[in-house]
Design a protein that fits this description.
about 40% helix, about 130 residues, five-stranded antiparallel sheet, alpha+beta, TATA-Binding Protein
Length: about 130
């Protein structure tokens, strides 16, 4: 089962992370959480990984609609977006496919919300400078 929407950006990590936040904002998403995986794993395990940040993105009207359809949908929120540095200097950006909510819950009432969220996340990723 595919559970993500992914694109590769022809820009380094730092500028891409900033562009992703702007692209999410343009689609009505706010970033509720930001987890720097490289810093966290360095601090907790003293291991080094490539730069990688997990953004917890939320579009409040969509979250509200999802909660109206499924009272435990909070277990699958917010929408995670991962920005990860690649060895060749490019950056991978991946977002959870909101259709996972429908699949995981079996609740067809979430389909319209998931469609809307998927369209918005897809547009955010498409708006970035991507590789062909």
């Amino acid at each position: 089962m595919s559970y993500g929407i992914t694109t590769t950006v022809d820009e380094p990590f730092g500028p891409t992370l900033a562009a992703v936040k702007d692209a999410l904002k343009a689609q009505g998403f706010g970033v509720l959480t930001e987890i720097d995986m490289a810093a966290t794993l360095k601090a907790k395990l003293d291991v080094d990984i490539a730069a990688q940040v997990i953004l917890g993105a939320c579009n409040p009207p969509l979250a509200y609609r999802a909660l109206q359809a499924e009272d435990q949908i909070g277990l699958l929120l917010p929408c995670n977006v991962v920005v990860r540095s690649l060895p060749d200097g490019r950056t991978e950006v991946a977002a959870i496919d909101p259709q996972v909510m429908v699949t995981m819950t079996g609740n067809a009432a979430l389909a319209a919300v998931a469609d809307d969220a998927a369209a918005r996340l897809g547009e955010a990723l498409r708006s970035l400078k991507t590789t062909a």
